[in-house]
Amino acid sequence: MIEFKLPDVGEGIHEGEIGKWLIKEGERVACDQPIVEVLTDKVNAELTAPAGGVVHKLMFAEGDAVRVGEVLFLLEAEGRIPVEEAGKAEQAASAAAPPPPLAAAVPASSAGRVRAAPYVRQLARQLNIDIEQVKGGGADGRITEEDVRRHASAGTAKVTEGPDMPGMNAASPGRERTEAAVRPQGGMPASACAEERVPLRGVRLKIAERLVKAATIIPHVTQVDELEADALQALRERLQPLASERQVKLTYLPFFIKAIVIALKEFPSFNASIDDEAKEIVLKRYYHIGIATDTPDGLIVPVIRDADRKTVFELAEEIGRLAERARAGKLALEEITGGTFTISNVGPIGSLLATPIINHPEAAILALHKMEPRMVVRNGEGVIRLMMNMALSFDHRLIDGAEAIRFTNRIKRLLEQPDLLWAEMV
After folding, report:
1. Is 16 helix (H, G, I), strand (E, B) or coil?
2. Mean pLDDT, rounded, for 222-243
3. Which of 53, 58, 143, 198 is in the most buried spot, having the most CB atoms within 10 Å?
């Protein structure tokens, strides 16, 4: 009997929530068959069977909270398990050995199977690719989606038609209605007075918990400024034909990322965090920019890693790819962790001004608002310019108000005179 326990995913995550069971007790499953969807505040993950067999018992119901190390289900292995599968099952069952990341496939023993997340394996099957032949470019040789697609584009496999690859999570459990959700109040008919109760769970619950933590721990201060975007608009329009040739959707966001990275290098306290236990300031020399993304399941923050090393076109491509994966619920753990600074781009929705909450443990977050023509005064005369508001929330334990103003002034100058982006780009 194999006990499958909730793995330790790191990143300070100690528990998850059973989003959806994909099998039933008594059902026969194959090795690597998806078993359960687990929701955390970092990622929605699909866990797979460590071996083939019969599901003996499900230890939790959908919606239950599960702590790392608790047994999720019991599996009766059928027949002889190959050496590598036995090693994998032992890793999943052993409480002593550290389990694998939640968003990844259960790792193989040294003898054995390649490392890849379940959705990556599914993509390989859809493309008729033997995943054992794909060279992994991820951490510890893990095979990523990009590795599989690169292998396919190299002509080593024949693409077969099939349904779109499903996401790692179904429709948000937090938006399901409870039974008898609408109930009469005070003896009055339901049509006269009613209320609807929706469980606070899944991604919505995790967002709530993280925001409360951030607002409680971090003393927030928000500094607001406005930006004249006419020159930036002209630059983007000049680059649009080249972006179209590369089949890249070029928004304003890549330019903001470039300007912010330059400013972060000059103002390192904005790319820092506080280690409360050690009472130390951690200054980070890498620039992983989080992009707050609106999805059907709530706000998700995918991370563009090493943004300082990417071109504007590469940033635009990465933004589009991560946004698409976020809305489909396909983000891997490494794609939503490790951010050092976050951008909340609410302008396309139509926001004029807001005070964003910092993505703990980061030191600051910049909210970008809508661009619109406004009457402003230049050289003593009223003129119309394309203007937008920026709102910077920062951790007052790390950053003083004067430094915050200098930081946003630097970003403003780089974007109002966007030729400086090229002149000062590393």
Report:
1. strand
2. 96
3. 143
